[in-house]
Amino acid sequence: MSFTEEVGIDLGTANVLIYVDGKGIVLQEPSVVAVNKDTKEILAIGSEAKRMIGRTPGNIAAIRPLREGVISDYDITERMLQYFIRKTCGGSRIFKPRLIVCVPSGVTEVEKRAVREAALQAGGRSVFLIEEPVAAAIGAGVDITGPEGVMIIDIGGGTTDIAVISMGGIVTSASVKLAGDTFDECIVKYIRKKYRLFIGERTAEQLKKEIGAAFYGETPRKTLCKGRDLVSGLPRTVEVTSAEILEALEEPIDGICEAVHSVLERTPPELAADVGESGIVITGGGAHLRGLERRIQRKTGIRTRIAPDADFCVAKGTGESLKYIDMLRKNSLNRRETYI
Ligand SMILES: Nc1ncnc2c1ncn2[C@@H]1O[C@H](COP(=O)(O)OP(=O)(O)OP(=O)(O)O)[C@@H](O)[C@H]1O
């Protein structure tokens, strides 16, 4: 049996992706764990556990152990990672791969330590951390080694990471807790307020993916939405349009555009001029929200494009980052002690 030597992990709020050099993405599962609340026994991990969200009986909880890009339940994260690593590395308990795990930019020392410890406990021989925007840029095929500034925006489930990168390091950045999960929450609130209808986060996510839009010029769409009437308590169906989803998402989308603007304002003029030339690249699952690139382009006046395979960029870049390890090690944002 051939064992995997080096493994890149996109430990995301919404999904965990594992990338192995030479093999590509070998695992993509939701970051969800179903636990029996009485016995603490883990009942399901990943896709199977996600199907249980909002449908579990009283004694079973479908937990998302990462929130807003960082670990909120350490033990569950460790066990989830352990399960995914074993699944990827041939189930060997003796062989330990070298792990490269991404973290949002601006993560605190405590948060970094939590990720590193969880990865080591989960079976890593050594752990190297890389910032999400750097990984996203590598995965998107953007050359990060040159002196020219490039801007990358990674829109995930918990955070949107925005960064201007030059010579392999982050020059200016922002990590805002406005991303896919916030979009879903805003849709839940909007439908409740407008239609007095209660819907769960999975239904909201479905609406966002099917008919969501971030720009008024997008082709209008509509769909039926099922929920529970807040007054009668009975199931009810309403028709929802893309214009309504756009209205629901106005605030977080505006917040993301503002954050992009502020990063550009803080960027040294030469590098900002480079970004104006080379354009902005968006990655992450949230990049698929229709018209988001047009919205950012309108706000900044800079050509904005979605990276090919936007969902996989962070995982791919995390796995491929070993090519740049010397440069990344020298970078002050990657302290020596992160490389154990
Ligand atoms: N077609 C789509 N339209 C809008 N949003 C989408 C679409 N497809 C996926 N998403 C959203 O992308 C988000 C997940 O993206 P991704 O897998 O990049 O996040 P993550 O890496 O787990 O999160 P984070 O980086 O914040 O830790 C979810 O909120 C999901 O609903």
Automatic annotation (TrEMBL):
Keyword Nucleotide-binding: yes
InterPro entries: Actin, ATPase_NBD, MreB, MreB_MamK-like
Transmembrane segments: none
GO biological process, one term: cell morphogenesis
Gene Ontology CC terms: cytoplasm
Pfam families: MreB_Mbl
Positions with a binding annotation for ATP: 13-15, 157-159, 205-208
Location relative to the cell: Cytoplasm
Sorted UniProt keywords: ATP-binding, Cell shape, Cytoplasm, Nucleotide-binding
GO molecular function ontology, one term from the record: ATP binding
Domain of life: Bacteria
Task performed by this protein: Forms membrane-associated dynamic filaments that are essential for cell shape determination. Acts by regulating cell wall synthesis and cell elongation, and thus cell shape. A feedback loop between cell geometry and MreB localization may maintain elongated cell shape by targeting cell wall growth to regions of negative cell wall curvature.
Self-association and partners: Forms polymers.
Entry's family note: Belongs to the FtsA/MreB family.
Name assigned to this protein: Cell shape-determining protein MreB
